């Protein structure tokens, strides 16, 4: 089988999604499955929908468009504020978008009007993490203007924490979001369908037994794919943490000294401290590099240590067990490594079922590139 490749176990992803959907349902919270780390894979989206998520979310219109074209029929939520240059495409393919700028929403209104459609808008509120969101004091004013815009439905409000500054979702900021929802509803005599409290970082709060108030949706990516919560990167009880595996192939295997020789200047990626002298080691090179993965986000199998990575080479110390050229090494990935590998055109994605007799569905990357995409995907 070709390498490097990501092996994605759809049954494990289904289990993780289903478990989170049912635990959160007990707390009155629905799940938007966030697909941005899956490059909009329609197979993964279908798996999420079978597991009971109520919406599909993505930060990139390319992915949303690809999923729509692949026949995914579910409410599509654009979770990054739309670019004005993307507005026609947002109206065509996304049902809901998360927004924080009136100028953008005005353009969405015009485009929806021209297309004879209604577009649903969730207003994002800044709760302290200092990425996207309207300042809380401006929310009522903004909501009033949005309610007057033709072909726009004010679907709800939301927040995003723990992305820029690591601010944790807790009762204080979540209660503030609930109170803001109440104040919008009271001020305009409306009811908001969605109060979307955040991402996987909200799970500790959601399962803490705290009052969930008006929060009735979370947008989950990492916790479904990797089975862990992102605040302390702890595994979530009952979830698989090994649904995704990266496989790379050995292209050189030699006994080499740990000390370089010659005059030492910068490396391909800048200054580096000289390695400690450990004598000779069994060193191997894997045909994978920074173009394919974030090497800092890889966990190697027992007995293997990652020494360094350049654009195309991962240098490993094989310990007591030298590897043959052509051998494969399997790694677990953190979120950063997952996103980079999923979006690298050099990494084949192999989606498979884990149940006995399940068939592998090899998908050659890029799995979901849309024929009309004119923005080449950037490496994260
Ligand atoms: C990425 C993202 C999510 C999903 O985050 P996870 O930690 O992967 O669950 C949710 N909402 C927004 C706005 C995002 O950018």
UniProtKB/TrEMBL annotation:
<dbReference type="InterPro" id="IPR029066">
    <property type="entry name" value="PLP-binding_barrel"/>
</dbReference>
<dbReference type="GO" id="GO:0005829">
    <property type="term" value="C:cytosol"/>
</dbReference>
<dbReference type="GO" id="GO:0030170">
    <property type="term" value="F:pyridoxal phosphate binding"/>
</dbReference>
<feature type="region of interest" description="Disordered">
    <location>
        <begin position="361"/>
        <end position="380"/>
    </location>
</feature>
<dbReference type="InterPro" id="IPR000821">
    <property type="entry name" value="Ala_racemase"/>
</dbReference>
<keyword id="KW-0413">Isomerase</keyword>
<protein>
    <submittedName>
        <fullName>Alanine racemase</fullName>
    </submittedName>
</protein>
<dbReference type="Pfam" id="PF01168">
    <property type="entry name" value="Ala_racemase_N"/>
</dbReference>
<dbReference type="GO" id="GO:0008784">
    <property type="term" value="F:alanine racemase activity"/>
</dbReference>
<keyword id="KW-0663">Pyridoxal phosphate</keyword>
<feature type="domain" description="Alanine racemase N-terminal">
    <location>
        <begin position="8"/>
        <end position="223"/>
    </location>
</feature>
<dbReference type="InterPro" id="IPR001608">
    <property type="entry name" value="Ala_racemase_N"/>
</dbReference>
């Amino acid at each position: 089988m070709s390498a490097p490749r990501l092996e994605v176990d759809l049954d494990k992803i289904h289990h993780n999604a289903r478990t989170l959907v049912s635990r959160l349902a007990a707390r009155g919270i629905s799940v938007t499955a966030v697909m941005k780390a899956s490059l909009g894979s329609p197979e993964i989206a279908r798996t999420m929908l079978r597991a009971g998520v109520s919406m599909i979310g993505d930060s990139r219109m390319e992915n949303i468009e690809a999923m729509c074209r692949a026949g995914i029929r579910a409410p599509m939520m654009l979770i990054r504020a739309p670019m004005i240059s993307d507005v026609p495409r947002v109206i065509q393919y996304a049902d809901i978008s998360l927004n924080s700028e009136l100028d953008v929403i005005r353009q969405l209104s015009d485009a929806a009007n021209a297309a004879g459609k209604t577009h649903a808008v969730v207003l994002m509120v800044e709760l302290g993490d200092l990425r996207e969101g309207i300042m809380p004091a401006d929310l009522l004013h903004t909501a009033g203007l949005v309610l007057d815009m033709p072909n726009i439905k004010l679907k709800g409000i939301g927040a995003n924490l723990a992305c820029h500054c690591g601010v944790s979702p807790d009762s204080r900021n979540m209660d503030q979001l609930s109170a803001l929802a109440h104040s919008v509803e009271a001020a305009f005599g409306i009811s908001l369908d969605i109060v979307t409290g955040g991402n996987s970082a909200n799970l500790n709060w959601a399962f803490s037994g705290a009052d969930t108030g008006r929060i009735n949706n979370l947008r989950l990516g990492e916790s479904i794919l990797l089975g862990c919560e992102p605040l302390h990167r702890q595994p979530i009880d009952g979830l698989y943490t090994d649904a995704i595996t990266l496989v790379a192939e050995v292209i050189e295997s030699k006994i080499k000294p740990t000390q370089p020789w010659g005059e030492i200047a910068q490396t391909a990626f800048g200054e580096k401290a000289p390695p400690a002298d450990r004598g000779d080691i069994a060193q191997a090179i894997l045909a994978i590099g920074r173009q394919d993965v974030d090497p800092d986000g890889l966990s190697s199998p027992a007995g293997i240590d990652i020494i360094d990575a350049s654009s195309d080479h991962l240098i490993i110390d094989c310990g007591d067990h030298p590897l043959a050229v052509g051998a494969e090494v399997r790694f677990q990935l953190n979120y950063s490594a997952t996103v980079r590998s999923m979006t690298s055109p050099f990494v084949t994605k192999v989606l498979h079922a884990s149940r006995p007799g399940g068939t592998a569905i090899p998908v050659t990357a890029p799995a979901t590139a849309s024929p009309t995409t004119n923005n080449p995907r950037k490496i994260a």
